[in-house]
Specification:
single chain, alpha/beta, FAD/NAD(P)-binding domain, 7-stranded mixed beta sheet, 5-stranded parallel beta sheet, globular, binds flavin-adenine dinucleotide
């Protein structure tokens, strides 16, 4: 059995992306004993991955403030369970952690939404942000042809990043229509910072063809993807490529909030003015409350940190900025909502749950997520429905009706370490 490391904090923050960094910093600057736990080897979350230790950037400034305020950083540790109120369990490379807290801030971010289509499980068909993360970790991409497809502003950021690192981008396919995208551009005009980002992206992407009302129909290849068939304004076209970087906007990581009993609506964690959830003492900031981008994550993190740190009045002046950014989040949501045609992408034999090899036709025999899960094992593999859950939600309109611990696959030795004596004895047949 593993040795448990125990720690206790006034404020514990789960997630070290922009929202978590801002929350932990502000709470620690209020004089609280703060811990921030993240499952990556370093802080920064999706957008600042690997940047906090490097040259000057906003990420570095936040990290310096966090350090100066004396917050404890626990990286490489993934929270998987709450055995009792005010205690979380995490799995770290050196063994399990038991983390006690008085106040908790959830800043668990978002992930890409994947939709199944023929060939989406071929090697080198990847999430757009996933491929970017691999390149950030050293995958050589120079000279490779990468088709970027799906939906959302992340596609543009990823295409710009990959091109900067030498990739050739034959086309960016966005499922939203030109009409929606024009409305989005007008909303951008009300956000000076976003206008600057938009112009910078336009320059970085100059010369790359961009197709609206366009999406991948199938990916084909012998051992890995070699070409993608895309639908472009109703016509199919084949584009040769080495990678397909594909994601359909983002979905919130709200499983931990659900496990802790926080109220959700449409998978989004519901919070009050101070970012407090429906559970007293548990706050939430960033993408789990709504997909809104970096600036919204930061301001929500600051408000949650100040409120959990005991300086709620100091958070009030930030409300107006947050409201402005939330309006932008609502526009994002409308613009990149998925069109009904995408429900027709998977063929009967297309795999939807890739962990358990469950095809679309097997799922179509059931009427609910629970029935499909019981009969096919859909969602019971290593991703624990993080990929197929949102996909079946879109394809069949199924809602996941329960979240059970552990919320991530966890080593047996860590589970058994925390099991009550009776359960342990049962698991080991009385020998434990
Ligand atoms: C794959 C991907 C790539 C992106 N790339 C860009 C980009 O290039 N440019 C851009 O403008 N925006 C990008 N975004 C959007 C960007 O992430 C958001 O706009 C915003 O920065 C999110 O900040 P956050 O702090 O709310 O969440 P995140 O940055 O997602 O941070 C959440 C952190 O919590 C950790 N976490 C979650 N659950 C647990 C747990 N149980 N235990 C421990 N740790 C946990 C996650 O691993 C993550 O590090 C990307 C999003 C995704 C999903």
């Amino acid at each position: 059995m593993s040795n448990i490391t125990r720690d206790q904090f006034d404020v514990l923050v789960v997630g070290g992306g922009p929202a978590g960094l801002a929350a932990a910093t502000c709470a620690a600057e209020c004089g609280r004993h703060v811990g921030v736990v993240d499952d990556n080897p370093a802080l920064g979350g999706q957008i600042w991955r690997g940047e906090v230790g490097k040259a000057a950037s906003e990420a570095v400034d936040w990290y310096a403030r966090l350090r100066a305020a004396g917050a404890n950083v626990l990286c490489g540790a993934r929270v998987f369970h709450q055995p009792e109120p005010e205690v979380l369990l995490a799995e770290a490379p050196d063994g399990p952690l038991e983390l006690k807290y008085k106040k908790l801030i959830l800043a668990t971010g978002a992930r890409e939404r994947f939709l199944p289509f023929p060939g989406w499980t071929l090697p080198n068909v990847m999430g757009a942000g996933g491929l970017q993360a691999l390149v950030k970790s050293g995958l050589p991409i120079a000279g490779k042809r990468v088709v970027v497809a799906g939906s959302g502003p992340l596609l543009l950021a990823v295409a710009a990043y990959l091109r900067q690192h030498g990739a050739e981008i034959p086309i960016i396919c966005e499922q939203a229509s030109w009409g929606s995208l024009v409305g989005f551009s007008l909303a951008l005009l009300r956000q000076p910072q976003k206008v600057r980002q938009g112009f910078a992206l336009r320059k970085q992407l100059a010369g790359i063809s961009f197709a609206a009302s366009s999406w991948p129909v199938s990916a084909r290849g012998e051992r890995a993807v070699e070409e993608v068939v895309i639908s472009q304004s109703g016509k199919n076209k084949t584009v040769p490529c080495d990678y397909l970087a594909c994601g359909f906007h983002l979905v919130p990581n709200s499983e931990l909030a659900a496990l802790l009993g926080c109220r959700l609506r449409d998978d989004l964690v519901q919070v009050d003015d101070y970012q407090q959830t429906s559970v007293a003492g548990i706050f939430c900031a960033g993408e789990p409350t709504g997909i809104g981008g970096l600036e919204l994550s930061l301001v929500e993190g600051r408000i949650a940190g100040l409120a959990a740190g005991g300086s709620a009045p100091a958070a009030k002046p930030l409300f107006a900025e947050r409201e402005k950014l939330r309006k932008f989040a609502r526009v994002l949501d409308r613009t990149f909502s998925l069109r009904a045609e995408l429900r027709g992408l998977p063929l009967p034999e297309t795999i939807v749950c890739r962990c358990e090899d469950v095809t679309c036709s097997r799922l179509a025999q059931h009427t609910s997520w629970r029935a499909a899960k019981l009969q096919t094992r859909c969602g019971m593999g290593p991703c624990q429905a993080r990929v197929c859950g949102p996909a079946t939600g879109f394809l069949f309109g199924w809602a996941q009706d329960s979240i059970r611990p552990p919320i991530f696959p966890t080593r047996f030795e860590n589970l058994i370490t925390f099991s009550p004596e009776a359960e342990r004895s049962e698991i080991t047949g009385g020998r434990g």
